[in-house]
Amino acid sequence: MTTHIFIVDLVTFKVHLEYLFAGTGAKDHLVDFNNSESSSLHHSTENMLTSMIADANRIREDDLIVFYLQQDLSEKIYEGKFYGIFRAKQDWSFLDNNNRGQYLGNELEKSLTFRTLIEPYKVYSEGVTEWEALDEIKNIQSPNQMLWSLIYRKLKGNRGNTMITPYESERLCQLIRNKNERKTIKYEGKLLSFDPISQKIICLNELTKVYSGRKEDIKILARLLAKFKQGKSFEPHLQAYIVKNIGQGINRNLDRVTLGDADLEWIGNEVSCGVGMQRIDVMLSTKKNEQRLCIPIELKSTEVIKSQNIKQQIQRYVDWIEQYYIPNQQSDLQPIIISKAVSDKTSSLYRKAVDSFGEFNDENVNKCYKLKYIEFYSDNGGLEFNEVNYTT
């Protein structure tokens, strides 16, 4: 179970509560490549929208949803606050595209293209301030106990749907419970809303409104394969595909080489691991017989021989996880590289790449399992994944 933080303002928060959904968007951009091979968008715009799709695809049924209400001095919201706790009603998000009027568009006063239905879980009226969640350190024993995912998001201004780690979720939800003395709202099918004066979630004496907008399935594979065949970069598309399909029994080949026979219990994408620009493309936590395994995955849409600093990238991820993640979530560590299949494995460049894998393994023998190298290729209208034994 993953916890997702949705960024809202005073207008959108009220609509989210009354119609029980969460959403993100990017102005009035039209996603013209959904379930399509082509797009008229500039590649930077397409990649930005695809990255938002990856965020939306990470959501699974029963995942937790917390809202962050942004500071707005004009509305007398003097500091941001975290409100919850809700949960996702279904797997993944859906698309309400901009080619027709979006449902509740006038009420929201902005475009929210990627949407997720939610339901109340344990809803508390009071929000936890940004200071209480991110800056207050009186109960912090070590720096790794701070909510780094949210701190990094604040520093970098990341997108409006951000996941947090299991430990961070436990801490944030506990802060919300304690703020409300563990007293939840007794809504019992009544309408939830938000009072801007008291800045509290409230329950009105009327029935919950029914969400009746479009719910178009998000399908990225056709566009991914088209870019693959054209020799164009498609790392955001690959991330969106993997985040949606992994652990779902849809691409069993993908599950086999990444999860084995373990259960997927948490998934993140674009996981920040430093105040610089370092981000882990995909990160998983799996569990088998009470043993957890943390899996950072570096994605490459090109052959691995074209990546100059991949060893250094993986090393940075492992070092960060060892210091900031594992102390809070005890687990073994299995780094993975997934890249396009190398056509010539007799080349000196391929030998140089796998030699660097061996060097990484030698340098990290006491930190993690040996680096797993997985290649993908297109076959029968889909993607196939194969683990490569590079030590022979």
Explain how this protein is built:
The chain is of the alpha+beta class and 392 residues long. It has 2 domains: 3-207, ph1033 like domains (ph1033 like fold); 221-388, Trna Endonuclease, Chain: A, domain 1 (3-Layer(aba) Sandwich), CATH 3.40.1350. It has helices at residues 10-19, 43-57, 105-108, 130-135, 148-156, 166-179, 221-230, 235-245, 252-258, 310-325, 348-363, and strands spanning 3-8, 21-24, 64-69, 81-88, 94-95, 114-120, 128-129, 161-164, 190-195, 200-207, 263-272, 279-288, 291-303, 332-333, 336-340, 372-379, 382-388. The strands form 3 sheets. Strands 1, 2, 3, 4, 5, 6, 7 and 8 form an 8-stranded mixed β-sheet that branches. Strands 11, 12, 13, 14, 15, 16 and 17 form a 7-stranded mixed β-sheet that branches. Strands 9-10 form a two-stranded antiparallel sheet.
